[in-house]
Amino acid sequence: MRLFVALDLPANVRETLALMRGSMPGVQWVPAENHHITLRFIGEITDRHRLEEIDLALSRLAWQPFELSLAKADIREGLTADSLLIGVERTRQLDALQSQIESALRRAGCPPAKRRFQPAITLGHFFPNQRADAIKWVQRHNLFRSKPMSVEHVTLFESLRSLGEHVYVPREEYAWQPEMPLIPEEE
Questions:
Q1: Which domain holds residue 115?
Q2: What is the pLDDT at residue 104?
Q3: What is the pLDDT of residues 172-182, one digit of tens each?
Q4: What is the dihedral of CA 102, 104, 108, 110, to 10 degrees?
Q5: What is the rounded CA–CA span in Å between residue 85 and residue 25?
Q6: How many domains does the chain have?
Q7: Which residue ranges does the UniProt annotation give for the motif HXTX 1 (predicted)?
Q8: Is 36 annotated in the active site?
């Protein structure tokens, strides 16, 4: 199983993002049902015991709901293709939740994250020869800002390959638990 932990997006936010795609020849647009905010990529898990440890670790997260907004378009350079992104406004609560997930997964035996946390939603992928069109797309959507959305759970997703495309299947949701003692946030 290829796993990652993410914030799933409400249907209305997915629809809004899907409308931003536009028509850029050669861009491989991410299907709206796959839009999410990755909090931690886990990778391939084949050991059932490790999967149980991950589930237990995520079920013990202690946090309170908070609001999050999306803002601005951007480009992220990749090894083989670049990506069109919508940014996520960083908040103390988002960073604390992501840090707690990282710690929980490391205690569950997962290796440390390979990349620094940079919250964003990938809308599409393009090749460097399409950079001029991508820059125009970013300029067109750079003032985008969503209404705040409530974050009340995180989701463990499995990434499957189907007919050459990725399909992200929610495996488990971990809701905030008011009865759990909060881990103090670092100042």
A1: 2-175
A2: 96
A3: 999 977 665 55
A4: 0
A5: 17
A6: 1
A7: 36-39
A8: yes
